[in-house]
Predict the structure.
Amino acid sequence: MAEEVVLRFDDVVFEYVNKKPILDEASFSVRRGSKITLMGQNGAGKSTLFGLIKGDLKPKEGKISIDAGATIGTASQTMDRAYFDLTLEEYFEKAFEVVPSGMKSKINKVMEAVNIDIPTDRKVGNLSGGQQARLLLAFALIQAPDILLLDEPTNNLDQEGIDHLITFLVMYDKTVIVISHDADFLNCFTEGVIYLDVFTHKMENYVGDYYSVVEEIANRIEREEKKNAQAEKAIKDRKEKVNFFANKGGKMRRLAAKLKEETEDLEDNMVDVRREDKTIRDFNIIEQNVIGEVVTIKSVVTFYQHQPLLKEVDLTLRKKTHMLVCGPNGVGKSTFLRSLVAGTAEGATILPGTIVGYYSQDFSQLDFNETVYDSLLAVKTEENTVQEMRAIAAGFLINGELMGNTVGSLSEGQKGLLSFARLVLMRPGLLILDEPTNHINFRHIPVIAEAINSYEGAMIMVSHMADFVKEIKIDEYLDLGKI
């Protein structure tokens, strides 16, 4: 049974309406019960591949075969805002065209599988990012899919949540295909890798755990670069000989023609070494000059067994004070940040006149219906011209082609980079960052860490990414799980 192929792509070609190619003769097969990682640069087509598997997109050429009767379940990166006003029970009912009998039992079973215990009459929009992440997985599982597609499933999860997810995936006896930037997470259960190349639009298949495959790819690139270096040396040498012998007569001219032909063959056989993603440019978030106590916190609301508790604290943030808010999923970290931004936090206030730069983990600070250009223009200060605004956006890989697109049409990673571009334009006196590395390509993270460390205004941050937090200079800690 384990050797049966449940999914196959045969020479699949796909491009969007604007003729932008995504996949070129993509071929691979997935065995039933296997655990596969989908790798590739930003824009390589990983989410597009999921759309093709689900049938939401159709290939231009080629064939996609899915085992007869095989069902597909998807855990998306983020919760659709359209679900925010639904109760958990209403949300799970959306997984079915016809709601089956025994629904409450099914809900309890999948919620137990993802290690979440929340009353089913709670609104989806009132849950923390980590709770929503588990809910997205539970939504896929309740359909009992033969093929489970996971898109960045560790975003917003604390370490306990990630460990539980790893245990679940190792024990899960059906097929799983995962998109993730979390290398340690992937290495725990991956049996193979499908690599999509954004430049060639080709697909490569590898067998082995994640780290072994990454090492294999790195070794291959090194071999290709050495082969190219040798070829370039030979090409240069032959071209010099061609130029020398071409000016001679008779046999020397014929030798020059032969060497020229050999040179062309060498150039044709140069290996197309994989090019990696561009990294965003170094940037600075210039702070608003705010004098005095930027944030005063006398009390915070935390959650224990889903019940709110008011806890007294005594914290003051001034210019250059950076604070980390920590604690397990569901304790109220994002709720505290949202209420602080909205001015509804009980016992916490922001100094009037302070410009607040807010990065929300669900991008609620963005208007998805606006164009990218208008989203940037809305926060541009008089200090920047439109030309400078465009240059700042380009530093975050937001080029002129994207400017006319709606914010909602961007990938999650692009929404994250747009959010940082807006922060640069705002010149805030207070940064409030809620999981600022979610959806962000790992190549950009050191640049972001450096910018945050260089920011001289007040800052409050929530992040479950331990490696990122280690790189950030923190002056104050607010652990909602221990106060």
Remarks:
- The first strand starts at residue 5 and ends at 15.
- The chain has a mean pLDDT of 86.
- The CA atoms of residues 30 and 232 lie 39 Å apart.
- DSSP finds 15 helices and 17 strands in the chain.
